[in-house]
Amino acid sequence: MEATSIINQLRYLAKWSLLASLVAVLAGSASAFFLVALDVATAWRESYRWMVWLLPLAGFAVGWLYLQLGREVEAGNNMLIDEIHDPKKVVPLRLAPLILCSTVVSHLFGASVGREGTAVQMGGALADQLTHVFRLRREDRSLVLMAGISAGFASVFGTPLAGAIFGLEVLFVGRMRITAIYPCMLAALLADQVTRWWGVGHTHFLSAPLGAPAGPLWLALCAIVAAGVVFGLTGRAFATATHGLAAWMKARIAYAPLRPFIGGVAIAVFVGLAGAVGGGLEVHRYLGLGIGPMVEAFRVPLDWWDWLGKFVFTVGSLGTGFKGGEVTPLFYIGATLGNALAPLLQQPFALLAALGFVAVFAGAANTPLACTVMAMEMFGPEIGPYAALACAAAYMFSGQSGIYRAQRRDAAR
Amino acid sequence: MEATSIINQLRYLAKWSLLASLVAVLAGSASAFFLVALDVATAWRESYRWMVWLLPLAGFAVGWLYLQLGREVEAGNNMLIDEIHDPKKVVPLRLAPLILCSTVVSHLFGASVGREGTAVQMGGALADQLTHVFRLRREDRSLVLMAGISAGFASVFGTPLAGAIFGLEVLFVGRMRITAIYPCMLAALLADQVTRWWGVGHTHFLSAPLGAPAGPLWLALCAIVAAGVVFGLTGRAFATATHGLAAWMKARIAYAPLRPFIGGVAIAVFVGLAGAVGGGLEVHRYLGLGIGPMVEAFRVPLDWWDWLGKFVFTVGSLGTGFKGGEVTPLFYIGATLGNALAPLLQQPFALLAALGFVAVFAGAANTPLACTVMAMEMFGPEIGPYAALACAAAYMFSGQSGIYRAQRRDAAR
């Protein structure tokens, strides 16, 4: 055991402790600001329901902003993943305010989008500015970006471990780079603390601890695996539909700002029609993040097609170019789909909602481990093995592709 | 989304559900039997302390057994890892009784060895018998072996998720093969259930839930990282010392059974001398698994050199050829080292003992994720981020090599 190698490791430790702490302060503060802005935007939209009529204009504004300022960062999460695999040029700082404003505008006027994309991109863009300050080398840059992704994810959802593992797991389908564990872990852990330090909390979905699955264990496990398969196929259908709609729009409409404009028109018309038909169909629940309906999914039976409504609204929003991310809508789709499957599979609502919450996302993003750990952080450690099984099954059925096109693939899956 | 691909996936699901269940029944039952045998052997040795005088003969017997029946399986865990990377021939079934008997004999007469090697090798050997029964192809064989490792590890420690991740993580240093997640996860989860179904339980180390770290968070995190570095260096020293002693013995003593004989003589003489000097030094605590002292490490301050005693006895036992495994002694070394560091770092005993428990092993085995999840399964989810940080730091300082020589390495670490 040579002393020089230990001294080198200590220098590495000091360097990455400093860099990861800086990444955490930047990304955690950005997430805190973003979460507060989202809360305000959501409260506003829920108070003034007519704002959805302006969604086409909001879409045009978002598309126009990206056309003027963001052509090189349009790819969002995929651009970050590409930069980590093959570092070329520093992510421009303006990506952070650009994605922040676009997401808040998207939510304010009722697009059905998420928030992890925004947090991850702000984390990545802010982290990458350290490249200038410290004149980082190529390999260090890719580690800083990974730490930024981990920090953004951890702080926006309040799940430090899941955030760290997400940053390690999202780069590849089917394998994982563990060497970056220290920077990612420290950045995730601290970023979550920074967000909490700003006084920003996270939703608690469970009203009581999750119980064990119902019935004999082998039958419960069969039910969980079956649900996992359905969750995985749903995640796959979501990724396919979103990419498909985006490609279809691009092929037909050359002027980018028109695409989210048309998406906004479609959503507003749909909301209007549903309102005119009246009564049964409460479509406002499908706008924005949908935290409220998600909480319901853990407690009471919902309409069996509730997940499908969110699916359509989200594909319509993201596929036409609104900004924010896929994850929170996937949580919604999973939780409500789990809610719908619970009576069929004779399992408790809360358990199936919790499993769907993480497993649809695990399938769509090819990140079964991060999602398993996320389930333990959000719903308690007892769910660990069940979540792992559901996420593994979902991952198996989610197909070769996913929501992040830039993920590298092994030859064998 | 083509129907044929989904049908193929369903067939894959059915096949691996069946195979993983069979692996789980075999490995879980073997672990249950093994744990009961270990309990009996430990109780016996603690009642009849003179049995340690027979340790040289026990060592000779173990060495002779392997010389007659086990030359091709001598490499133990490393042989399994090699077979997964490069499948050649089926692991002989006799490995299971061979490692079982050798381990129980080693424990009965007081060698300081573990139990994960035995559980993992029984799991692997039993699982590999399915290769004949189902005429599995090469790739399937390597999956079955991974499932066997996961099942053995999960059932012997009662930590299903950590077992599953261990099976995925142990093959490589620095990356992880996630494709096998479903078979490994199902086998681990069910094997743990099978062991419990046989009425075999596991030690609970905590008497009360772990609290938060003491003092301001940033100072506590510095303390945890510093402890992680020490844990990693200790794991590294352990791997180096064990391999070094084994190589040294092999170069000097050609007749294999003589090596554990000499190791047994050394240990017995040491125990005798310590008894003659009397009073202070209670060396019987270093024999066998050492569950009792480990439980103490979570509750009361111990002698600062307690970890060193276990270190010496274990290197002396494993390096000369006793059988069992490294993990439980590494738990002991880590927990008591954490106990010794706690007052220096001004942190609670239980927290530092829990972190040392997993982090020395994480460093020595290059499995930081499995160890993080193990900490959550054994000590509660709150420890997750701290365990992750300690394991990541330990992993960073554990060097290029580890207790499992057959692990493949990436070029860059």
TrEMBL record, chains A, B:
This is Voltage-gated chloride channel protein. Keywords: Membrane, Transmembrane, Transmembrane helix. It is a multi-pass membrane protein. SUPFAM superfamilies: Clc chloride channel (SSF81340). One of its GO terms (molecular function) is chloride transmembrane transporter activity. It is found in: Membrane. InterPro entries: Cl-channel_core, ClC, ClC-type_chloride_channel. One of its GO terms (cellular component) is membrane. Gene3D superfamilies: Clc chloride channel. Its main location: membrane.
